[in-house]
Amino acid sequence: MVIEQAIFHIIEGQQNAFEKKFYELSDIFRHAEACEKFKLIRGIENKQQYILQIYWMSLEAHTDVFMKTEEFKQWFLAMKPFLAEKIQMQHFENTLA
């Protein structure tokens, strides 16, 4: 299993609109074949910062399959107006069970 962590920096004052749009379009992750689970969390000290964590079956399932779908491209275009800067994305794996 691979854990994707994407950090979103949202334009000041757009947090509620971002959350609403994200939740409206969140079925993209629920229906993605290789997505095990996901969650969106908001910063406490910096309320413009969000972290999206997605648990994928494999790195390839995320980068080589999911990110090339038309659904992902449309989702990204819907999120882009809320972004204050480029999304920072990293992948992780468990080291302790």
From TrEMBL:
Keyword check for Oxidoreductase, yes or no: yes
Which E.C. number(s) belong to this protein? 1.14.-.-
| Broad class of enzyme this protein falls into | oxidoreductase
| Pfam families to which the protein is assigned, alphabetical | ABM
Task: Enumerate the InterPro entries for this protein.
Answer: ABM_dom (IPR007138), Dimeric_a/b-barrel (IPR011008)
Keywords associated with the record: Monooxygenase, Oxidoreductase
GO MF annotations for this entry? monooxygenase activity
* Name of the protein: Antibiotic biosynthesis monooxygenase
Q: Which organism is it from?
A: Acinetobacter sichuanensis
